[in-house]
Specification:
Distance between the termini: 42 Å
Family: Belongs to the precorrin methyltransferase family.
EC number: 2.1.1.107
Structural class: alpha/beta
Number of domains: 2
Order of helices and strands: EHEEHEHEHEHEHEEHE
Number of helices: 7
Keywords: Methyltransferase, Porphyrin biosynthesis, S-adenosyl-L-methionine, Transferase
Protein name: uroporphyrinogen-III C-methyltransferase
Pathway: Porphyrin-containing compound metabolism; siroheme biosynthesis; precorrin-2 from uroporphyrinogen III: step 1/1; Cofactor biosynthesis; adenosylcobalamin biosynthesis
CATH topology of the largest domain: Methyltransferase, Cobalt-precorrin-4 Transmethylase, Domain 2
Bound molecules: S-adenosyl-L-homocysteine
Number of strands: 10
Strand order of the largest sheet: 3-2-4-1-5
Strand content: 15-25%
CATH superfamily of the largest domain: Tetrapyrrole methylase, C-terminal domain
Mean pLDDT: 92
CATH architecture of the largest domain: 2-Layer Sandwich
Low-confidence stretches: none
Length: 245
């Protein structure tokens, strides 16, 4: 039987932000391997499927990547229709391309389905336009967490003039703040810290580069959260979408 795996982005949390293509893949799925950050509500689209949790949140219980690879392959070779469901988009800090390469190298057909990444959803849900004519001519998505402890060129980011969207930044606020200040970003640069973007429990803490660590502590900011750093982060809520309950 031909083996096929769908690598599917489940979006940021609101189940209505699934794509039609993701729903179609879930409808056909016999096995769904699901990450921690995926809202289990999306499983209503695959009532008959076996659901295998393979989450690995930083610092918590973890499923090694090699194990996930082997498990996908095993199910695919059994002829099962496998959906590998990831939070946000599979290829934005999601290791989607590693899984795609590995499966293809083992002769498995793979189809990738985009999801709405948390940074885009978080900004939109609190009324922040990530690009804005005359204010922000671009947007840069970065992760504050690297497996090899390599560092980003924060000075370049501080001076790049684009909106910064930082993933996995909650535990790294002091380093991010110091690096951007040292790189020449103004201390009063607006910052938005958005927790649980697109979910009913979404919270949004507005601050500045200098104050963000202190304000995050007072706010008790928790992961998952994204940071939006740039002039646009001062945008007020007029654009904000209602978060559906
Ligand atoms: N592939 C995912 C990102 C995975 S990395 C995507 O495209 O969105 C995990 C990080 O994503 C978290 O540490 C957090 O920074 C961010 N994240 C994921 N879901 C989120 C949510 N609902 N609200 C805020 N941040 C979220």
């Amino acid at each position: 039987m031909s083996a096929k795996v769908w690598l599917v982005g489940a979006g940021p949390g609101d189940p209505e932000l699934l794509t039609l293509k993701a729903v179609k893949a879930l409808n056909q799925a016999q096995v769904v391997m699901i990450d921690d950050l995926v809202n289990p509500a999306v499983l209503e689209h695959c009532p008959g499927a076996r659901v295998v949790p393979v989450g690995k949140r930083g610092g918590c219980r973890s499923t090694p990547q090699a194990f996930i690879h082997r498990l996908m392959l095993r199910y695919a070779r059994q002829g099962k229709c496998v959906v590998r469901l990831k939070g946000g988009d599979p290829c934005i800090f999601g290791r989607g391309s590693e899984e795609l390469d590995w499966l293809q190298a083992h002769g498995v057909e793979v189809e990738m389905v985009n999801g709405i990444t948390a940074g885009l959803a978080g900004a939109t849900h609190c009324g922040i336009p990530l690009t804005l004519r005359g204010v922000a001519r671009g947007v840069t998505l970065v992760t504050a967490h690297t497996q090899d402890d390599s560092t980003l060129n924060w000075s370049a980011l501080a001076q790049g003039g684009t909106t910064l969207v930082v993933y996995m930044g909650v535990a790294k606020l002091p380093e991010i703040r110091e690096s951007l200040l040292a790189g020449g970003m103004p201390a009063d640069m607006p910052v938005a810290m958005i927790e649980n973007a697109s979910l009913p429990q979404q919270r949004d803490c507005r601050s500045t580069l200098a104050a963000m660590q202190r304000d995050a502590m007072a706010f008790e900011l928790k992961s998952p959260a994204i940071l939006v750093i740039g002039e646009v982060a001062a945008a007020q809520q007029a654009l904000a979408l209602a978060v559906s309950a």
